[in-house]
Amino acid sequence: MGYEYLTPQSALAKRGGKRSKIVLEEILTVQLRKLNKIQHQGQTHPFSEVNIQKAVEAISQFPYDALYTTSQELYDLLTLGKSLEQIIDGDKKSYPLQYIDWHNPANNVYHISDEFEIERRNSTQTRRPDLVLFVNGIPLVVIECKRPDLKDALNEAISQQLRNHRAENIPHFFCLTQLLLVASQNAAQYGTTATDKEFWAVWKEEAAAQLDQQLHTLVNRPLAELILCYNDWFS
């Protein structure tokens, strides 16, 4: 399964033309309707449009407190979902809604965009991560790429990722992301949100001849599976 490419213009349109937004709300709304149904007394019902909008706002218009605490709250939302009240046949109950189908990754949709402009906090100036990968319109992976002729290319890419975490830049964006990568030609490193530079892991290859095939497998593997594997490795 591959990722559908979105031009920067298309990605901007799918977040309502607002660079202050980080979630592709147009895609997320469609996916929430598709993935979530309510089972009530043997009947299947859709979530109300009011509840769908509440779910979108919960993950796209969240209040930013601090990087760690807000990241934890959003991680719980991504993995556990959100409970929403709805009245069906006069019976008011809370029902679970999921943002990602972790059990059947093929039910999700995957996109990638480049030069993803994001407004800095309290500013109209922007930062532009090189590549962003989305699951159901939610940004989960950020990749920074550097020219191979650049001195200390990977260190510079990691520094750029960490600079973007700063309070005056786009820390709210990294509250949702789960995996950060940097790459320069055949070298790569990876970490998670707020990982200090010295703790970024080196992407190791047993044989250089296998690189192209393994990168092809990585790019075309459902991101939900990658995150599940990543959590298993470091749990």
Question: What tags apply to this protein structure?
Answer:
235 residues; alpha+beta; elongated; disordered C terminus
Number of strands: 13
- Quick one: CATH class of the largest domain? Alpha Beta
How many DSSP H or I helices? 7
The CATH architecture of the largest domain can be given as Alpha-Beta Complex
- Total separate domains: 2
Structural summary, described in words:
This protein has 235 residues and is an alpha+beta fold. It folds into 2 domains: 24-97, no CATH class; 105-234, Alpha-Beta Complex (tt1808, chain A). The protein is built from 7 helices and 13 strands. A hairpin with a 2-residue loop joins strand 2 (37-40) and strand 3 (43-46). Helix 2 (25-35) packs across helix 3. It is elongated and about 65 Å long. The protein starts with a strand and ends with a helix. The model is unreliable at 230-235 (pLDDT under 50).
Quick overview:
With 235 residues, the protein is an alpha+beta fold. The chain has helices at 8-13, 25-35, 49-60, 67-80, 153-165, 211-220, 223-234, and strands at 4-6, 37-40, 43-46, 82-88, 91-97, 110-114, 118-119, 126-127, 131-135, 138-145, 179-184, 187-191, 201-202. The longest helix is centred in the N-terminal third of the chain and has 14 residues, at 67-80.
Secondary structure topology:
Elements: E1 4-6, H1 8-13, H2 25-35, E2 37-40, E3 43-46, H3 49-60, H4 67-80, E4 82-88, E5 91-97, E6 110-114, E7 118-119, E8 126-127, E9 131-135, E10 138-145, H5 153-165, E11 179-184, E12 187-191, E13 201-202, H6 211-220, H7 223-234
Parallel strand pairs: 1-6, 10-11
Antiparallel strand pairs: 2-3, 4-5, 6-9, 7-8, 9-10, 11-12, 12-13
